[in-house]
Design goal:
By secondary structure, the chain is an all-alpha fold. The chain has two domains: 127 residues, Actin-binding Protein, T-fimbrin, domain 1 (Orthogonal Bundle), CATH 1.10.418.10; 78 residues, Single alpha-helices involved in coiled-coils or other helix-helix interfaces, CATH 1.20.5.1430. 58% of the residues lie in helices and 0% in strands. It is built from eleven helices and no strands. The longest helix is centred in the last third of the chain and has 49 residues. The radius of gyration is 27 Å and the shape is elongated. The two termini are 46 Å apart.
Amino acid sequence: MAASIGIMDGAYFVGRGEILHWINATLQLSLAKVEEAASGAVQCQLLDMVHPGVVPMHKVNFDAKTEYDMIQNYKVLQDVFNKLRIGKNIEVNKLVKGRPLDNLEFLQWLKRYCDSVNGGIMNENYSPVERRSKGCKERGSKCSNKPSKSLQANRLPGVDSADGGPGVGKVCITFSEEHYIEQIQKLSEKIADLKVSVDSTEKERDFYFSKLRDIEILCQRPELEHLPMTKAVRKILYAADAKDSPLPEANDIITKSPSLFSSETE
């Protein structure tokens, strides 16, 4: 089951762009960043798609902006996990902070899970917009089909009309503002991508360092530290020169120790 996949599984190497394309195409949304899914509403609807009737969509708030409202969505998601017996830990405190890497990893896992259900075949009769609208009506709040904050930001104040209204005298200023806003958005996306890349690299570094540390501790056991194989491994672990490989010297240690294989020949 996808709930138990390891951190080095191929699911966690699916790119941010592919994840966003999958979400937008599946749910008919227009997310530009993975952290825009931090409210938990998207995750709830993805499960609603693969498990029709299990998710109480009337409890899902697509307009959640505060951490309190977001947490309510994750409570719904956790209840669904419990019903489906999905043993996946939801790190709500990290997700609601909107950190790109945390949200990307959770969405990567969720994509793997959704692909594992019914062989990844989507329900053609599922209407994501209708499900969101129905949920909003039942909840008695405004529907989430209104333009997102990011889309509203692209419409600058001061341009009231194109036929001589108050905005005509501000066309040049508005154009300049739009240009700078576009540049800021592009730079912000690049910064977010770099942050995801750095966080991913650091996590991978820590993963391999922990493995090397485990090997080092094993080599320090009194009954093993004098063995030729242990000496060869430590030769590689403690090599200071990055240019010259310590592998030949490690091989020599093993080769010059015939006693290593004496028990097998006997």
